[in-house]
Amino acid sequence: MATMADVARSAGVSVATVSHVLNDTRPVLPHTRQAVLDAVDALGYTPNTLARSLVTSRTRSIGLAVSAISNPYFTEILQGVEAEALEHGFSLLIADPHDDPEHERKAVRLLHERRVDGVIVAPSANPDGLLAHLARHAVPTVFLDRLVDADRLATGTVLPGTPPRQPTGNGSERYRQGTRFRFDQICSENAEPMAWLVTHLAGLGHRRIGLVAGLPGLSTTTERISGYRQGLAAAGLAHDERLVVHGASAAAGAERATAALLSLAAPPTALVTGNNAMTIGALRILGDRGLSVPEDLALCCFDDFAWADLFSPRLTAISQPSKEIGARAVRLLLDRMESPGRASRTVRLPCAFVHRTSCGCPDTPSEKGNVS
């Protein structure tokens, strides 16, 4: 098995130069760098990642904690995170917090104990324990999909008098007592795209539009409910609290929520679902009741997914840029690791309206874009 010394002899450079090339620890002349890389390829040299991490205090790994990884939306986010991480020479460790605050804290703690250089987290509805751990250990962090409100982020302040912490190898040694620990966040726009769905259904003549909303406490749920109300107001429709039910962001919860809407004395004539898992649950209960979409109930959903165009009827949906969210999360994290003291950033990416037939419109090829 080739060693770093073998690479150095083959390239005609010192072992230190080989180390600088492989670890990006010091600028190296382009022709020298290429000679080292050519020697690495010719000899089949594989760096000892564990040994390198002991020297550099970096593992070149990222922790990803998202619930419901089987959900197509999060699966695509995972693909975006992994591709971008590999592009920058980072491996990925994955944990599922199960949308439970205590499990979330434990999952992220375990990732941290495995010496990841930073974490990307889709936080639960009550992330206080998570925030406390991340701030206490100064773990470079990006929150993904679900935003954490400003009051909670204030817990990230490292209070004066806090004893200095030992370096952990992930950039946290550059934090000092009395400074603010900063988080970055990335998500889709939520309110306006939800309003598009509601105004579209209202434009088709619907006056009682139901909403199957997600898990209470999540920013995605709060913002999409806000967008629902904005859409009603724009269409001149009154808001009826009975038409908003929570499906817990899951198929089973959406079944119960949709059943409750159908049991109303004046049930909705149109329905909007808050994510793709709840769309499946709503469709299942509608089928069980012998109701047809859109003949008996028009349907629009937040979250497009690969087979939405294969349903009958084809699902009118909001498409989120899930892979780009994942990729941008990695880039935000790398920036945070490089410059821990930089100002916090919250990035929102635009969504697209995908017009199909479940809303009751004529069958035309799928169209992406804003609602007119």
Kindly summarize this structure in a few lines.
The protein is α/β, with parallel strands linked by helices. It is built from 13 helices and 13 strands.
Give the strand line-up of the largest sheet: 7-6-8-9-10-12-13
Unreliable stretches (pLDDT < 50, length at least 5) are: 155-179
Estimate what percentage of residues fall within beta strands: 5-15%
SSE string: HHHHEHEHEHEHEHEHEHEHEEHEEE
Largest sheet: 7 strands, mixed
Q: How many H/I helices?
A: 13
Helix content range of the residues, please? Answer: 40-55%
Mean pLDDT: 86
- Radius of gyration from the CA trace? 25 Å
- How many strands in all? 13
> What's the N-to-C terminus distance?
64 Å
Label the structural class.
Answer: alpha/beta
Q: What oligomeric state do these chains adopt?
A: single chain
Which shape, going by the Cα principal axes? elongated
Describe the structure.
- The strands form two sheets. Strands 7-6-8-9-10-12-13 form a seven-stranded mixed β-sheet, with helices on both faces. A six-stranded parallel β-sheet has the order 2-1-3-4-5-11.
- It has 13 helices and 13 strands.
- The N and C termini lie far apart (64 Å).
- α6 runs parallel beside α7 (128-136) and α11 packs across α12.
- With 372 residues, it is of the alpha/beta class.
- It is elongated.
- The longest helix has 17 residues, at 322-338.
- Helix content is 41%, strand content 15%.
- α5 (72-87) links the parallel β1 and β2 (91-95).
- The protein has helices at residues 4-11, 15-23, 30-43, 49-56, 72-87, 101-113, 128-136, 150-153, 191-203, 219-234, 251-262, 276-288, 322-338; strands spanning 61-65, 91-95, 118-121, 141-144, 184-188, 209-213, 244-246, 270-273, 298-302, 316-319, 346-349, 352-355, 367-369.
